[in-house]
Write a structure and sequence with these properties.
The chain is an alpha/beta fold and 201 residues long. The protein contains 7 helices and 9 strands; from the N terminus they run E-H-E-E-E-H-E-E-H-E-H-E-H-H-E-H. The longest helix is centred in the C-terminal third of the chain and has 16 residues. The structure holds adenosine-5'-diphosphate and guanosine-5'-monophosphate.
């Protein structure tokens, strides 16, 4: 018996957050993914309501006004936000909810949900990060520059997170995250104490 909690995964663009989250869900059916809203255009293959809720500026502003976001931020050249109601309902049900969000959002979550667990993914090197962004090939030259420039700023926030995990070998990084999740589940503060669950008492 364990209480639900938020697991924030951040890290610079191209570090492998999307790849890692996809694999985490394939391997751990009990994890729940929070789908963010964004004003960014969908990339090839991205599906509305699966990868993101793709919305326009007007709708985004309306959601802010109606207090529908748990957190939101301007990232790179667009706006991104976490719809609040879904996340709260899932945590209430005892689920572990993954938020793949940027540093600004993570710091807001840390203040609002002190029980949240924050993981920062680190590149093995800046050159490797560049190679990964280029390999993905979804950004224009200008957008790639913005993302690399922001990466340097974001990396300075690593100490605000609970865990720092280097994404060198994909399988190793995933296993380290799973280790964190298992340990966090066992934290005594998350244990729902019920004498009926303890045999022999
Ligand atoms: P993010 O979601 O953080 O922006 P992506 O998941 O889109 O990053 O990954 C960017 C690129 O890096 C993709 O082409 C992905 O296949 C590759 N990648 C992710 N993790 C690794 C890794 N550990 N080793 C090599 N390439 C990786
Ligand atoms: P991308 O455009 O590559 O999908 O995401 C760009 C950045 O926005 C990434 O750092 C990603 O983690 C972040 N992001 C995605 N969704 C959210 C969100 O709901 N809130 C915040 N603050 N950042 C988000």
């Amino acid at each position: 018996m364990s209480k639900g909690f938020l697991l924030v995964i951040s890290g610079p663009s191209g570090i492998g957050k999307g790849t890692i989250c996809k694999r985490l869900f394939e391997r751990n059916k009990d994890l729940v993914f929070s789908i963010s809203a964004t004003t960014r255009e969908p990339r090839r293959g991205e599906i509305d309501g699966v990868n993101y809720f793709f919305i326009d500026e007007e709708k985004f502003s309306e959601m802010i006004k109606n207090n529908e976001f748990l957190e939101y931020a301007h990232v790179h050249s667009n706006r991104y936000g976490t719809p609040k109601r879904f996340v709260d309902e899932q945590v209430e049900r005892g689920e572990i909810v993954i938020l793949e969000i940027d540093v600004q959002g993570a710091l807001q979550v840390r203040d609002l949900y002190p029980e949240a667990v924050l993981i920062f993914l680190i590149p093995p090197s800046l050159d490797e990060l560049k190679r990964r962004i280029i390999k993905r090939g979804t950004e224009t030259e200008d957008d790639m520059k913005i993302r690399l420039n922001n990466a340097l700023k974001e990396l300075k926030y690593v100490n605000k997170y609970d865990y720092a995990i280097i994404n060198d070998e994909l399988d190793d990084a995933i296993k380290r995250i799973e280790t964190v999740i298992e340990a966090e589940k066992l934290k005594s503060k998350r244990f729902e104490y019920n004498l009926d669950n303890i045999k022999g008492l």
